[in-house]
Fold:
Amino acid sequence: MPYFDAASAAPLHPVAHQALLASLDEGWADPARLYREGRRARMLLDAAREAAAEAVGCRPDELVFTPSGTHAVHTGIAGALAARRRVGRHLVTSAVEHSSVLHSAAAHEADGGSATEVPVGRTGAVAARDFAAALRPDTALACLQSANHEVGTLQPVAEVAQQCREVGVPLLVDAAQSLGWGPVDGDWSLLTASAHKWGGPAGVGLLVVRKGVRYAPQGPADEREAGRSPGFVNLPAVVAAAASLRAVRAEADEEAARLRELVERIRARVAADVPDVEVVGDPVDRLPHLVTFSCLYVDGESLLHALDGAGFSVSSGSSCTSSTLTPSHVLRAMGVLSEGNVRVSLPRGTREAEVADFLAALPGAVAGVRERLGAPGAVPAAPSAAPASLTVDALGKRCPLPVIELAKVIGDVAPGGTVTVLADDVAARLDIPAWCEMRGQEYVGEEERAQGSAYVVRRAK
Amino acid sequence: MPYFDAASAAPLHPVAHQALLASLDEGWADPARLYREGRRARMLLDAAREAAAEAVGCRPDELVFTPSGTHAVHTGIAGALAARRRVGRHLVTSAVEHSSVLHSAAAHEADGGSATEVPVGRTGAVAARDFAAALRPDTALACLQSANHEVGTLQPVAEVAQQCREVGVPLLVDAAQSLGWGPVDGDWSLLTASAHKWGGPAGVGLLVVRKGVRYAPQGPADEREAGRSPGFVNLPAVVAAAASLRAVRAEADEEAARLRELVERIRARVAADVPDVEVVGDPVDRLPHLVTFSCLYVDGESLLHALDGAGFSVSSGSSCTSSTLTPSHVLRAMGVLSEGNVRVSLPRGTREAEVADFLAALPGAVAGVRERLGAPGAVPAAPSAAPASLTVDALGKRCPLPVIELAKVIGDVAPGGTVTVLADDVAARLDIPAWCEMRGQEYVGEEERAQGSAYVVRRAK
Structure:
């Protein structure tokens, strides 16, 4: 049964499994204790730290283990911001960071700090010059992911790190999605990662703070992990994380080339075989194993269920698959279609036949959802005596219905006439302009109403 | 090889081992996802939460899993304090809480809050009336451990909880040491625990917040675990924690009775077979598996090494075994001897023969350390024409040397005369009065000097 959601959590690598088992018996004691079980635990911990540091490309004493990638991000940002409080309280991030970064920024703002989100282009990458322009004299910290977790686009980390160095701002790189594929290039200051993204166990994150970077741990004191990560160290998981990082790195180049080709095939075949689809993310500068696309007139949740029923596990950034009813902030920042969104992220070892099966099943799954929703076909010729404007009431209707309603009536107005869609679903703000772009229609704009918004579209002549 | 430090970390229970293995294959996916692997993970997580809640005696939706007991304490205290900020910023704890509680209190004070430590008696227990007296109109939260981690003494939690209810102050109970032995009685408001203390894996703590108790999560938002514990859930460890809690509870009564008897034997035999020893902690109202004693004229680190060499793993609250050079805050609060301190905490399944071997080895180990340090014997009769006062310079000498120097010269002054010990080792402040108590000499007092302190002792008549 193909599991294609490695970007959420990768299945445990066999080396992680073995290392975890071995260290359950050897590594349960407190590494701070003086007796033999404690000394053995300390040796395992030191060896794991050295292995992880080697894979990151840092000194062992620059790296601590945290209980998760999220903890690494939360504590790393808080510690770096606090240490430079005298310089200022301004934080710069990209608009497409992981929620742990953006939620840290929101907490910082709630606490009186300020934050700037650097926008991204349609592929999901920041422009290095835009990032540099956001740095201010009072900027305490900048954060940029190595690669985007939803669309796979690589960010210009080395260039941004160089720019940050030049103005003396530390750069924290969230390397959660990329560290299993290789070290992060460039002269960054802090780095975070998460073991279960590379095939390690849950319960382990990495926080690296380069020597010379100012850092002030926040929260109650705790002497473990250099005072930077409180709590009893989860040693068996730490040992498994380090061992599996080394193992996946040994296979990384070969496996990346293989998966890159499979993803290339998905990108091409999805665009060719599924009508009205937008494949998003950078086609070249991307993670090897990840591809994302959005299907017009499809709701993400139904498509996920259809694919799950056919045996394929994928995830989605569509609003209808999340508890918040807002589409993924990444898709929003890129300005691309969010409805019918599917992220495919191949775990290591994915077989060609599994991908072929998925590509064979996908067009039927999409067509099935569209049929149930009554999705419209091509825009018909305008009838004679068509009105110059029409209004569609889609209030209370969820994604993708407002867009479907729009598509159903666009043929009913005269060329050059307008359709006004009343909608209160947040996804409409993203998906109506995206539909216009895909359909060659003109998006006029949005106007707030007492209930929801009015989105105006002009029919092409 | 007997391991007698279960209070630091218990060896993994066989049920935890099995459950961890089983859920490594079933429980690695994200429980928030809609596909089959996610649904399976969600079912495992729900079942673990129900099992843990049943053992605690709470509703499943009152309990979240954290990455450690320390995280449970840090986040629980911060969330409870923040929710009652309008009431006030006063925090009450006992003086013998775990460092995670006391460090939370210190962080709260550094942030502008206030804190009161309720003192304990010589057995390590707070008096419920003293605790009640510390509650104020602006008290936002009170914290009391169920049982002390260093000396095993049970605290009057049910009575204190009742008093807290009466004045509307929530009580957080740190149940790390006792939860494996049984639920915490009384009408507490919040509870924390740590799985690796009961034989579960590292990487799992519990935070329980009773319905109706005001709670405001701090730090960056995260939707997992009801917004109370950020980061990807370490599901295999959580499953193992819940399964092992259920398993140790099933055996708890029988095993507690058995270990209680073994500890009774240690208490009696240590007092009888080791000269100049103080067995500390409540002899009756105590954890079943834990006993602590201190040996005069012995340094804890040498004794631990000697016992480790003989095959026994124990821990110590003596200053010379910690990196801080201060003796355990628990022993300090109790006002008992800290030098030559040994904590014995028996893991489940400890055999009688192992305890017998330990009791056979201990007197020789203590005598060996004393011989190397040149520890004095009984106080000799005063020589004729003995001086009325003497001063001993023990500056720069570490525990237990200042006490040994004192003991060596006490016989040289006339009865009723005084010995002044100059010392800058922090342990002297605790150990010189404790020595006087054990030796029937009079402790006159301490006077600060430019370097260290002068401790004055009057020879008994």
Chain A has a mean pLDDT of 95. The domain at 14-248 of chain A is CATH 3.40.640.10 (Aspartate Aminotransferase; domain 2). The CA atoms of residues 172 and 245 of chain A lie 20 Å apart. The longest strand of chain A covers residues 139-145.
